C-alpha cells in the first residue's frame, strides 16, 4: 500500500510507501552532535569523557592515600587532633569529585539547531555573505543585536544553521553551539558554559583547597616526628610523595582557579579573553566586581533546551522525494532529500509533521496493493483506511511544527 500526497500550492503529487514512514526514536539516539549519553539519555557527556577516569584518579588517589595514612596515625597519636583532619580530608575529596561529576554529566547549554537556513531579515549585516548564490539564497554572515546599549555582532553557524546567541560559540569537539561558551575542558570531558560553569568553579576551587590541605598536613606530619628531618623523610616516603605531588598540582589547578576568579570579576569567558574581545572595546556585560560575583553565585541557571528522552523522528528513518526550486533557471527540479530531524512525538504517540509535509492535501489516498486472482485485495497487516484523519496543532518548542495522527486498522 502507498499513500498519494498532493500539494495544491505546488501542483504536484508524490507517493510515500509504508516502509518510508518515520520510526520513533529518543532524541539522544538521533542526536547530531558528538556527545555521548548514559542512563538512557539522562546524562550527557562529551566525546572525550573517558578522561574523567584519569581526573578521578589524579584527585582521589593522593587524597585517599592521605586519609588512610591519617587513619593509621590515629592509633598512635592524639585522636582528638587526627579525627577532624581525617573527616575534613574526606569531605573535601567527596565534594571535589561530586562537583567534577556534576560538571561533566549535565547539558552545558547547547543551542538547538535549525533544520534549514533562517529567513533573512532587516537586522542582518551586509558586510559578508556565506554563499555566492542568487539574492534569494544568500545568508548574511553576521547580524547586529543590541546588548546593554552596545551593538554586538552575532555570527551565523553553518553547521547548526542558526545565528548564535550573544557569547555563544560552536565547540568543534562536541559539534554543538553552546550558550556563553567558556572552553572545552579535556580533564572534565565536557564543554564549560552557561549551565555548568558554577560547578566547574567549585570543582577547581575545592581541588585547589584539597591540594593545599594535603600539602600542609603532610608537612605537619613530618615535622611532628622526632629526629633529623632528612632521616624522617627517608622513613616516611608517602608523606614526601604527597608533598611533591601537591606542590606541583597546586600550580596548575591553583593557577586555573585564580585565572577564572579574574574572569568572574570582569565578567568574561575564557574564549572572549583569549580572543582579546574587550581589549579595545568596552565589555557590555561587566557590571562591576560585586555585581559580577552576585550574578555568578546567585544567578538562576536556566533549564536545558532539550528533553533528551523525548520521542522524535529519526533522520535515517524517513526519506521522500521533495520539490526544490532552482532559482537560477526559475524551474523546479525533483530531488531526494532527508526529512528534518527533531520532530517531537506527543505523549499519546502522535508524530510531528515535518515542514516539507505541511500544507499538503491528504484527501487523495490511493492503494497500490496488488490484488489476487479473485479481485480481492491481498492480505496486508497494516494500512491506512480511507477515513484517515489529519489533525494539526501548534508546538511552540519544536519550531511550531504541525502534528498529525493516523487511524490504523487491520484488514
Write the layout of secondary structure elements.
Blueprint: E1 2-7, E2 12-17, E3 24-26, E4 36-38, E5 43-45, H1 51-74, H2 79-104, E6 142-147, E7 150-157, E8 162-163, E9 169-171, E10 176-178, E11 183-185, E12 190-192, H3 197-224, H4 229-235, H5 237-266, H6 270-274, H7 289-298, E13 311-313, E14 319-326, E15 331-338, E16 351-352, E17 383-384, E18 403-404, E19 408-409
Antiparallel strand pairs: 1-2, 3-13, 4-5, 6-7, 7-8, 9-10, 11-12, 14-15, 16-18, 17-19
Helix pairs in contact: 1-2, 1-3, 1-5, 2-3, 3-5
Summarize the structure.
This protein is of the alpha+beta class and 411 residues long. 32% of the residues lie in helices and 18% in strands. The chain has helices at 51-74, 79-104, 197-224, 229-235, 237-266, 270-274, 289-298; strands spanning 2-7, 12-17, 24-26, 36-38, 43-45, 142-147, 150-157, 162-163, 169-171, 176-178, 183-185, 190-192, 311-313, 319-326, 331-338, 351-352, 383-384, 403-404, 408-409.
Number of strands: 19
Strand order of the largest sheet: 6-7-8
Portion of residues in helices?
25-40%
Task: Indicate the structural class.
Answer: alpha+beta
Molecular shape? elongated
Largest sheet: 3 strands, antiparallel
Strand proportion, as a percent range, falls in 15-25%
**Parts with pLDDT < 50 across at least 5 consecutive residues:** 8-12, 316-411
Distance between the termini: 12 Å
Rg, alpha carbons: 30 Å
* Overall pLDDT: 75
Number of distinct helices: 7
Task: Encode the helix/strand succession as letters.
Answer: EEEEEHHEEEEEEEHHHHHEEEEEEE
Describe the protein's architecture and organization.
This protein has 411 residues and is of the alpha+beta class. Helices cover 32% and strands 18% of the residues. The protein has 7 helices and 19 strands. The chain has helices at residues 51-74, 79-104, 197-224, 229-235, 237-266, 270-274, 289-298; strands spanning 2-7, 12-17, 24-26, 36-38, 43-45, 142-147, 150-157, 162-163, 169-171, 176-178, 183-185, 190-192, 311-313, 319-326, 331-338, 351-352, 383-384, 403-404, 408-409. A 3-stranded antiparallel beta sheet has the order 6-7-8, with no helix packed on it. A two-stranded antiparallel ribbon has the order 1-2. The chain is elongated. Mean pLDDT is 75; it is low at 8-12 and 316-411.
